[in-house]
Every structure is written in structure tokens, then in C-alpha cells.
């Protein structure tokens, strides 16, 4: 460790992103990327963005993108915040809305960036244990707190929380901001965005990386009461007034506007997920109920780390977590039908 580092850097335990290996004939099922490419309208918009205008700064207010998001979700543009991927949006949320005297609450098994952000911004937090069957229990969040955040569906479990239970948490905490991270909501869960009009303490965060097939573009957004959005804008403009470049603005707007392609690809992922769960079950795997573009599964007679290594030797990459309670699970992205067939074929050979 360098003597030039600040105290903050010395104390950080950084987030570890999913591996991006350079293997021949790779079947990449470890980072929950969409198996289908972005909308053709997105690609056309990106080509149109290649012009002499790149010498000019992008729109710092992202007005066209905000208008498109607002129109899709029946809110006003003043309810919308955009950022360089939902990770940046969440970073501003932690800094601007969740740093208070009382502890922040989030599940003990959840998106591993949450404790990283808490450490970065020196936010006290409490990790609330999931139930024995890995569900969020709303009553556990009816305690004094400085804010609440959880994904829906949860990650890495993929288990969705019914909208009535989400509202139960929001209604029970009128003096705290409740953040619902909906990165995977489009694959089978119910969005809390319609509740924004009813609850000024609710903020819903979305990404373009999953259901919009734009993980490589880096765009995300939040929808909430204008007071919450103003706080995020103040943080953004104190950090980087231009988080989305001209390509991101053009591509993200086109992705929002092409609702038909979005619906088509989401439906394809959901259909493949159902078939994959059925085939995994036939091989003896126990899979948690998923409303995401991945499954969380284990085999009672097989060590998860060994299974992951055996798959890797066959150029199939899945995600294995070493955390307590989930170290015998594998998180497997729902790929194309062909990729899932290769996965099942490999598992049959391994188990044999």
C-alpha cells in the first residue's frame, strides 16, 4: 500500500466485477449480459451520432433522453435522473440521499456494490438477513434507519418481491428514502415506478445494461420525486456535468423508443429461462425462483466451486460466490438457446 494514498483509499474494499476472460469459443454466462444485441434502431442512432458534432459537449441535462424515459413511464421529466450506468446513479444516490446519522439497511445477500459504496462514503449500515429460503421480509425493515436499498428482483438470488410487499416497506418508512434497484425487473417482476406518484420517499433505479442490451454503452436512470432528483443533480454537477456522451444519449434514447424490440427480447429470455430451469431440475439441480435474466442454482451432491471449474475447463464461464450461505450456488446467466444447450450438455458429462 502506498504512503501517498488517502485514509479513504486505505480503508476501501473495492467491488470485484465479473470476469471478462479471453478464452477461445467462450460461452460467457457469468455477468448477466443480454444474449441478444441491441435494437437495430440503437445501432442506426449510434451511426448517426458520428459527425462533426463530437467536437461539442453533449447535453448536460440529457433532455431528449429524459423526455423519452418520462413518456414511457408516465411521469414528468423532472422525475427523471440519468447517469453513466446505474452504478454511477447508485453512487450518487448513496452520497446524496442515504448518508445520515442512522444506519442504512440492505439485505445481507444482495448486490455486492452496496457495502462498497457505504465504505466509500463512510455510511453506517446494517445488513438485514434474508429468510432461510432467501426472501426479503418487509417487517425486518420496519426499524429506525437512515435509508433502505434493495434490488427487486434481488441479486444474486433472482427472487422477486411482490409489489404489495415493496409498498409495505415504503409506507412504513415515510421519513427515509427507499431505493428499489430494478436492474432485472423487466424479466418478470413488477416495477415500483407507479408508486412514485404516491410516495415522495421512493426512488426507483434502472439500467440499460440488461433488458436494453447496452452493457457496453453505460447508461442508467432513476425515477423519483423531483426533490430527490434535485439532490442527485446537485451531486452530479459537483462531480461531472457530462456523464453521458453523445453516443450514450443517442443510443439510450433509441433503446427506450423501440418498445417492440425490447418486449421481443425480454420474452425470449423469459422463455429460455423456463426451459433452462426445467433441464437443470432434470439433472438434480435446485434452482431458486427467478424473475431475472439469470438463475441461482445448486446441486446437492456437487461442490459449486468444482462445478464452476469443470465448466471453465470446457470454456463455459459461470459465477461462483464464496460468501456464507451461498457458497454452494452458481449464478448462471440465461444465454441463447444454443448456449444453454451447450451448458446442459457439459453438465451432463461432468455429472456422469
Detailed description of the structure:
The protein has eleven helices and 13 strands. The relative contact order is 0.17. Helix 2 runs antiparallel to helix 8. A seven-stranded mixed sheet has the order 2-8-7-6-5-3-4, sandwiched between helices. It has a four-stranded antiparallel sheet with strand order 9-10-13-12, with helices on one face. With 352 residues, it is α/β, with parallel strands linked by helices. The longest helix is centred in the C-terminal third of the chain and has 24 residues. The radius of gyration is 20 Å and the shape is globular. It folds into two domains: 123 residues, Aspartate Aminotransferase, domain 1 (Alpha-Beta Complex), CATH 3.90.1150.10; 208 residues, Type I PLP-dependent aspartate aminotransferase-like (Major domain) (Aspartate Aminotransferase, domain 2).
Amino acid at each position: 500500500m502506498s504512503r501517498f494514498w488517502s485514509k479513504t483509499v486505505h480503508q476501501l474494499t473495492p467491488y470485484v466485477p465479473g470476469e471478462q476472460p479471453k478464452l477461445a469459443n467462450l460461452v460467457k454466462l457469468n455477468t448477466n449480459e443480454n444474449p441478444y444485441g441491441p435494437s437495430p434502431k440503437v445501432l442506426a442512432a449510434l451511426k448517426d451520432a458520428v459527425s462533426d458534432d463530437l467536437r461539442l459537449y453533449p447535453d448536460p441535462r440529457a433532455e431528449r433522453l429524459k423526455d423519452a424515459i418520462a413518456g414511457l413511464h408516465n411521469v414528468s421529466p423532472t422525475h427523471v435522473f440519468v447517469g453513466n450506468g446505474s452504478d454511477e446513479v447508485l453512487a450518487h444516490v448513496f452520497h446524496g440521499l442515504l448518508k445520515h446519522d442512522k444506519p442504512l439497511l440492505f439485505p445481507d445477500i444482495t448486490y455486492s456494490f452496496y457495502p462498497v459504496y457505504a465504505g466509500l462514503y463512510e455510511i453506517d449500515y446494517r445488513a438485514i438477513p434474508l429468510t432461510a429460503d432467501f426472501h426479503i421480509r418487509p417487517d425486518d425493515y420496519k426499524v429506525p434507519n437512515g435509508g433502505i436499498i434493495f434490488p427487486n428482483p434481488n441479486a444474486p438470488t433472482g427472487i422477486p418481491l411482490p409489489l404489495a410487499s415493496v409498498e409495505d416497506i415504503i409506507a412504513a418508512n415515510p421519513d427515509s428514502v427507499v431505493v428499489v434497484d430494478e436492474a432485472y425487473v423487466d424479466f418478470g417482476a413488477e416495477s415500483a415506478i407507479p408508486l412514485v406518484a404516491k410516495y415522495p420517499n421512493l426512488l426507483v433505479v434502472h439500467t440499460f445494461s440488461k433488458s436494453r442490451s447496452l452493457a457496453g454503452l453505460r447508461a442508467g436512470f432513476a425515477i423519483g420525486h423531483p426533490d430527490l432528483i434535485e439532490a442527485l443533480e446537485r451531486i452530479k454537477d459537483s462531480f461531472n456535468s457530462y456523464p453521458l456522451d453523445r453516443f450514450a444519449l443517442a443510443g439510450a434514447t433509441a433503446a427506450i423508443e423501440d418498445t417492440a424490440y425490447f418486449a421481443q427480447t425480454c420474452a425470449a429470455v423469459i422463455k429460455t429461462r423456463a426451459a433452462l430451469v426445467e433441464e437443470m431440475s432434470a439433472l438434480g439441480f435446485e434452482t431458486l425462483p427467478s424473475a431475472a435474466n439469470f438463475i441461482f442454482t445448486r446441486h446437492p451432491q456437487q461442490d459449486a466451486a468444482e462445478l464452476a471449474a469443470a465448466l471453465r475447463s470446457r470454456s463455459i464461464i459461470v459465477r461462483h460466490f464464496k460468501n456464507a450461505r451461498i457458497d454452494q450456488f452458481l449464478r448462471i446467466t440465461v444465454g441463447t438457446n444454443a448456449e444453454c444447450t451447450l451448458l446442459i450438455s457439459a453438465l451432463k458429462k461432468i455429472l456422469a
